[in-house]
Amino acid sequence: MTFRQFAFNNVLRNKRLYIAYFLSSMFTVMVVFTFAIFAFHPAFSEGTINQNVLLGMSVAGGIIYVFSFFFVLYSMSSFLQSRKKEFGLLIMLGASNKQIRLMVFLENILIGFFATVGGILTGLVFAKAILLVAENVLIISETLDFYIPTLAIVVTFVSFIFLFFCISIFVSFILRTNKLVDLIKGDKKSKGEPKASIILSVLAALLLIGGYGTAISVEGVYVVYAMIPVVIVVTLGTYLLFTQLSVFLIRLLKNNTSIFWRKTNMLLFSDLSFRLKDNARTFFMVAIISTVAFSAIGSLYGFQSIINGTKDPYSITYSPFLNDSKAIIEEDTNKINAILQEENIDAEMESLELNYYEIAEENALIISASDYNRFASLIVDKELHPEENEAVVVEQSGEAGGIVEDGPKASEWLMEANVQLEDGQELQPKRIVASSVLPTTSDGYYVVNDKDFERLGPPERKDHSVAWKLEEGQKDQIIEAGRKINNLEGDLQYKTFIVDYTIYEINKAYGPILFIGLFIGIVFFVSAGSFLYFRLFTDLDEEKRKFQAIAKIGLTQSELEKVVNQQVAILFFSPIIVALVHGAIALTALSRLFNYNLTVESSLVLGSFAFIQLLYFVIVRYIYVKQVKTVLR
Amino acid sequence: MLTLTNVSKIYEGKVAYRALTDISLDIETGEFVAIMGPSGSGKTTLLNIISTNDAPTTGQVEIEGKAPHQLKKNALAKFRRTELGFIFQDFNLLHTLTVEENIVLPLTLDGTRVKEMKEKAHQIAESLGIAAIMKKRTYEISGGQAQRVAIARAMIHQPKLLLADEPTGNLDSKASKDVMAMLEAINKQENTSLLMVTHDPQAASYSDRVVFIRDGKLHSEIHRGESRQAFFQKIIDMLSLMGGDGNDFSSVRV
Ligand SMILES: Nc1ncnc2c1ncn2[C@@H]1O[C@H](COP(=O)(O)OP(=O)(O)OP(=O)(O)O)[C@@H](O)[C@H]1O
Ligand SMILES: [Mg+2]
């Protein structure tokens, strides 16, 4: 038997050991391949779809590929970890380092090859499903038909064979450093506890509190500036949390014999501390990856509801350019009305002259009460009736979903200033009202009694605004009207703002981003799951041996189940809980950036992830307990 | 205290193998019995059946009037860790635990008070001479030390029946004498019944009675008289009578 044959048989005969590694590699290939099927779809390359989408997809493809590299590398190294003893024995029996490296190399190539082929085949099965999903998430007119994805197959195959080749070389290099004794005693000796220092533990707490504090206290655009520092601080804090605080807690527990020596606690915690280094690493990775998944999907979903939740009291607003004459305004409104007519849209229109006056060296908008009330009655809002000699400051209430502007509110300076009538009389504003009655871009303005309005004198600047209010339930028509207006010659389209049509357009452009984001989020989340699976099953044989040893002394079924349950639960939930908190904080920050309440969306997203994780826990626990129980008799 | 009636064991497999045939054996409370026989004669199999780690194909096992093989799984587990103590051929220590933790493990499972556990562990460790290594991990101790740790763990809960599979298998003659002296002391002081499998005539000579098995059948037994030296000689004679060449046994002890 040549050594090559030996390596080949080693894989085939040790199926069980290799299967976890194989499956996760295959999963990775499948993910990338499905993505490639989607990305290389003829509908995209024929150019009917936005260039940005293509760019976004190549970036996403890159991220997924790089991620799969690390994922496969990690799976590989934990797989090799569980075989240390085997290598030790081989070396002791006289195999040279070179031979072992060759063996690992060949094994990897073999596994890699079959994983690639298997991943592509399973990917083909899911191809139709993914195209259907894509079709529905993306708002595109074409249907994404099933096609024979030759290009996707070739690209996936080549890139993964390349990836596995690199990893095989890489892995056979890292292998050589170990000493024989370490290899043979490998599974008995703890890889050690990371050093726990009080300073670092406190630092972990401080970093997390600081990061969280900043994330939820900043508002508006500051959220954007704070984002990167907060991400770095929290990531560091999370790392220290798992490598320091967990060590610290376990130490505390182990030193407290009255807890540590109680019933099955000793079995549970000795194991946790024995694998502390591996566990801490896994916890950290899973927490971060899941946070990315939660935040990505949460913010995409949040964005979408922010966009769709944007409320404008008017369906259409028209604001002419500064130097547009009366005639042009007339012509424009006629055009709009004509299109509305064509589409059979019922709409009420109001138009208004906006007069700006110089007040406290700034231009301030002043509106007469009757003008204001005309619009108020159009959208059925509260009317304003200022007394004579009274000025009411109106704060334009920000539409939900707009980025909160920085700086003092408009009403503040309006309150401090006062309105001067032509005869020199001053109107001191006394109250502030928040409203979005007027279709204007001003942040705030005065409303005065009609009589006072006439005594204001000539305005500094004049502007014009026209607004339409539609009956409910004409969404399709208004989108069609919007398309017509946008297709008109001239610059009417730049002066009109049609909420529903704009949302429709944004959604259309946003679809691919949403899809890609969802895809990446799910990939990350699933791979976080398989990290956990690996962590658990790498040590399965050792665990079995341990429980067998204890079973010989006498361990009841319920005791065994209890220990295993707790063990799996700690592994599955401690990183996810951290990730959920991270995600919740990130989404809170997002909602503060847009001043939009995202509680429902966040709870929905985070809740579903928590639920999936719970489900995953229940399944894995079932399999694991069943495996471990085989040692009981 | 322990009664075996017509115990047989057949290992099912591609080829069914009859490892034990109609073994009947009685052990009194406080008795110290050694089992000897050539390699592959079924000693470990017998011990596994008595320790309830394996079930007999036919025949009955009774310990203290109870039939452990009839017990439900959970009750059996409790029975094992209260009534029985084991010293395994391969020690069977948990490497995630320290020596001390390994020793108290059976007690922690039963929810004994920590103070009591500490005291007992300390006391036993003193008497076995392993007090100095209590905080060490299992990969940091020698085979002989591990053997003593295994003994300490087997007796910490004062079992009624102590089962030992080649407790001196890994030890030099000085260490094995120590271990045997300890086992004898436990047997005398605590009145613990002791059943030990061994290849070592020296070790066997500490017992009250040696039972020989061969090809899965009881071959013969001899009782200890007044002097251990004479007993030892009788054992050697019996072995050479039984096994043809005595190499089987001498090869184990270097
Ligand atoms: N699980 C098993 N399945 C099948 N046959 C077994 C099994 N365990 C032991 N045997 C066979 O039963 C016979 C008795 O084995 P056992 O382990 O009891 O021998 P032993 O007397 O302890 O030997 P040694 O002195 O070498 O430890 C042997 O022939 C062995 O091959
Ligand atoms: Mg044996």
From TrEMBL, chain A:
Q: Where does the ABC3 transporter permease C-terminal domain start and stop, copy by copy? A: 59-176
Q: What Gene Ontology cellular-component terms does the record carry?
A: plasma membrane
Q: Which InterPro entries match?
A: ABC-4_Integral_Memb_Prot, ABC3_permease_C, ABC_permease_BceB-typ
Q: Please give the start and end residues of each transmembrane region.
A: 20-41, 53-74, 109-134, 146-175, 196-216, 222-253, 283-303, 513-536, 568-590, 602-624
Keywords, A to Z, come to: Cell membrane, Membrane, Transmembrane, Transmembrane helix, Transport
Q: Where in the cell is it found?
A: Cell membrane
Classify the protein's membrane topology as the record does.
Answer: Multi-pass membrane protein
Could you state one GO biological process linked to this protein? transmembrane transport
Q: Which Pfam families match?
A: FtsX
What family classification does the UniProt entry report for this protein? Belongs to the ABC-4 integral membrane protein family.
Name by which UniProt lists this protein:
ABC transporter permease
Record the organism.
Aquibacillus koreensis
